[in-house]
Write a structure and sequence with these properties.
Elements (H helix, E strand, L loop, with lengths): L1 E7 L5 E8 L3 E5 L3 H13 L3 E5 L2 H10 L4 E5 L7 H11 L5 E5 L5 H9 L4 E4 L4 H19 L2
Parallel strand pairs: 3-4, 3-5, 5-6, 6-7
Antiparallel strand pairs: 1-2
């Protein structure tokens, strides 16, 4: 997937810097800005383009406007919960891989509910960031493999 890196200045002038190859275009949904920034930075190092947002409502609005290869979704969000967002994503984007992430450890009930709603995987934030990204990419690869068969 080739993507042009574009920057617009305050005068509305658009500059195209270069064409880059992107492995996945990812929507990152987390209500903690530090976590969003960290995930975005690590995904960028892995040749992934990420768009970030802080709420489920914002995520659903973005999904109406843009196409993504995967969603990395915090299960505990303020406002609309991650499970509610997952349910809405499944209604409208049945084959879009959604990987749930949480800082609250592995709650068996949440994992069960996430799987019932069709999440592609579940990751705890308590592991090293590099492992989070590797695990995320593996879940997405597996989900995309299932979707093409």
């Amino acid at each position: 997937m080739g993507v042009r890196q574009v920057t617009e200045n305050c005068a509305g002038v658009v500059f195209v810097h270069k064409e880059v190859t992107v492995l996945y275009k990812v929507l990152v949904v987390d209500d903690e800005s530090a976590v969003r920034d960290l995930l975005r930075d690590f995904l960028k190092k892995e040749d992934c383009l990420s768009i970030t947002c802080r709420s489920g409502e914002e995520a659903l609005a973005i999904l109406k406007k843009e196409t993504f290869d995967a969603v990395l979704l915090d299960i505990k969000l303020s406002g609309m919960s991650g499970l509610e967002v997952l349910k809405e994503i499944r209604k409208n984007y049945a084959n879009l891989p959604v990987v749930m992430i949480t800082g609250f450890g592995f709650d068996e009930e949440l994992i069960y509910k996430s799987k019932q709603l069709g999440c592609s995987g579940f990751i705890g934030k308590n592991i090293p960031m590099t492992q989070i990204i590797v695990t995320f990419k593996q879940f997405v690869k597996e989900a995309k493999g299932k979707g093409s068969s």
